[in-house]
Specification:
Blueprint lengths: L3 H5 L3 H7 L6 E3 L3 E3 L19 E2 L4 E2 L9 E6 L1 H4 L10 H9 L5 E5 L5 H11 L6 E8 L1 H6 L4 H4 L8 H15 L23 H23 L5 E6 L3 H4 L5 H11 L4 H5 L5 H18 L2 E4 H6 L17 H15 L3
Helix pairs in contact: 4-15, 5-9, 9-13
Protein name: Inducer of phenazine A
InterPro entries: SGNH_hydro_sf (IPR036514)
Length: 336
């Protein structure tokens, strides 16, 4: 029997294959990135793993950019286009094709990336796009979600998804190099790690905002010589836009809730109130950096109808949702 997810969003099966953990592509410094030269009817990537964008008459990607200046749509999985039925339906493609086509848009987003990984992605591939007109960072959810991790996993630069597997593997590696020593230098046994207590919500918001501000400051310095304008857009989580959506969203969300622990892990950050508190703090941080800021959730909320099916899950957009968000983004930022 087919699930509601498979019936309503069959393209998600392609994303499941694309995200196959057995095919994870580990990269130095960045930790992980997309499968390179991936081909399907839904999603295609270049030799580096960046998704291909469509303009009205040409295609482009970071590895194969069009001539002249470009605009970069950075961020994590939502601007990457998880949920889109094909490459032409992603946000970068809709901006390039219809809503802000005066300069080509490249998809510079990374699946499951935090703000540090977004910064590193730009640093590692900056030389491939020498002329940059605009950088739009469409992000925010992952840094807040990852702020619940233990201090030892967050470190000084923020945690990343599946980092527990990384630290466990590194501990196994260290253990393989250890030798039992007698006397001086012997490693004493230690108490078990104390149970992790998730920090209060206010602390997690402050932590995520501080990380984002630091990484945006570094991005501003790196991008400065290009003259590119940087805008930070807080992505519109479904529950930051409205409490309940149309029948399609309710069917898919209900099904996903039955097989995941979303509300246990992220219930307190998924509320409308948290979305506004987070946006207010980010706005102050961006202003201090001289970076434009846009909270897209209330903009979307004011523009959609009750029966507009926007989401394939609470973070990722349908084609209809992408179309609406792309138009509102271009309009709100004055892009042509």
């Amino acid at each position: 029997m087919k699930s509601q997810r498979e019936i309503l969003t069959p393209q998600m099966l392609r994303y499941d294959d694309f995200d196959d953990r057995a095919e994870t592509r580990y990269l130095p410094y960045l930790m992980y990135f997309h499968r390179a030269d991936y081909r399907s009817a839904t999603i295609n990537t270049d030799r580096l793993g960046f998704r291909i964008s469509h303009g009205a008459a040409e295609k482009g990607s970071v590895a194969n950019p069009p001539k002249g200046p470009v605009r970069l749509l950075a961020g994590s999985s939502t601007p990457f286009g998880i949920g889109a039925t094909d490459d032409a339906a992603t946000m970068a493609s809709r901006l390039w094709t219809r809503y802000a086509p005066s300069v080509p848009w490249l998809n510079f987003a990374g699946r499951s990336h935090n703000s540090m990984q977004e910064l590193l992605l730009f640093l590692m591939h900056r030389e491939l796009v020498p002329e940059i007109d605009e950088i739009v960072v469409f992000s925010g959810l992952n840094d807040l979600a990852l702020a619940r991790l233990p201090d030892a996993q967050r470190g000084d630069h923020g945690g990343f998804f599946d980092c527990g597997e990384y630290f466990d593997s590194m501990e196994e590696l260290r253990a393989s190099h250890r030798r039992t020593k007698r006397g001086f230098g012997r490693r004493p046994g230690g108490p078990q790690d104390a149970p992790h207590v998730v920090p209060p919500l206010a602390d997690r918001i402050a932590y995520a905002v501080d990380l984002t501000a630091r990484h945006l400051a570094a991005l501003r310095l790196l991008a400065g010589p290009t003259g590119a304008r940087i805008t930070y857009v807080l992505q519109p989580l479904a529950t930051w836009v409205r409490e309940s959506g149309p029948a399609e969203e309710r069917a898919i969300f209900g099904e996903l809730d039955g097989i995941s622990n979303f509300w246990e892990l992220y219930g307190d950050i998924a509320t409308l109130e948290t979305g506004r508190r987070y946006a207010d703090a980010l706005q102050v941080a961006c202003k201090e950096q001289g970076i434009r800021f846009l909270d897209l959730s209330p903009v979307v909320a004011d523009s959609v109808k009750d029966d507009d099916w926007l989401y394939v899950d609470r973070a990722h957009l349908t084609d209809r949702g992408t179309e609406i968000v792309s138009g509102l983004l271009a309009e709100s930022l004055g892009l042509s």
